Amino acid sequence: MLVKHIVKQGLLLKNAGALSRAAYHGGHGPHSTMNDLPVPAGDWKEQNSQKNAKYNAALITGILVLAGTIGFVKSSGLIHFNYYVPKSLD
């Protein structure tokens, strides 16, 4: 039913032009130059330290969650970490 609707409305033919190479590459638009690039502004050291503080907080949070998960799994007995060679069944 969906295929009949698509064929009936001509949606495939309407959208075929949008998928062509010329439309994909934007046709004949203005070309980018070096003047279109963003200009750095502000103190890079301050911005870098703010970003690093955020990244370090995410790193510490991840490490704490990992340690908590390993501790929970170890204490619950769901997984045995096989620290030692298993005893023989004999």
From TrEMBL:
Deltamethrin resistance protein prag01 domain boundaries: 35-86
Transmembrane annotation, as ranges: 55-73
This protein's record includes keyword Transmembrane helix: yes
Swiss-Prot/TrEMBL keywords: Membrane, Transmembrane, Transmembrane helix
Name by which UniProt lists this protein: Uncharacterized protein LOC108049422
Gene name linked to the record: LOC108049422
